[in-house]
Amino acid sequence: MFKAAGAADLVITYRDNQSDRSVNRSLQSHSLRFILNCLFGFWLSDYHSMIVYPVKWLRQIAVKADGYGYQICALISLLQLGLTYVQVPVSLNAELKGSSRALRLRTYFELGGTIVSLLRRVPIRHVDLSQVPTDAERAPAR
């Protein structure tokens, strides 16, 4: 993940060991990713793994989400600004059966609220778009 830093504005990891998760957890992760990909068109392999963010851009956006929705909101907001990204596979530790908090009803409501706010266009604070690197200054995204 850190070797890819600098290859693009964002380094987005995705889990390459999904089989270590329960069928239910894996199905829900795939479903959320499919919904986000269809709604926002970034076609990422994961929206909720580890991400290397450019701090200067993260500080300039208003993230109106908590919990699981925070990272999704921040990531989509930065991608909507036009920042480039690379996706890198990572293997994460297997979850203990029943340890995931992602399968709680409250989490579904939080994620639903995050998605609705993103569709209503999360307001971007006064971002100076002239500071976003031009295509010529960016590394090619993978």
Explain this structure:
By secondary structure, the chain is an alpha+beta fold. 35% of the residues lie in helices and 10% in strands. The chain is built from four helices and three strands. The chain has a three-stranded mixed β-sheet, with no helix packed on it. Helix 3 (68-80) packs parallel to helix 4 (105-119). The two termini are 14 Å apart. The model is unreliable at 136-142 (pLDDT under 50).
Short description:
The protein has helices spanning 23-40, 55-58, 68-80, 105-119; strands at 10-15, 51-52, 85-90.
Estimate the strand proportion: 5-15%
* H/I helix tally: 4
Report the major sheet: 3 strands, mixed
The computed structural class is alpha+beta
Which percent range fits the helix content? Answer: 25-40%
Mean pLDDT: 80
Total number of strands: 3
Quaternary structure classification: single chain
Unreliable spans are 136-142
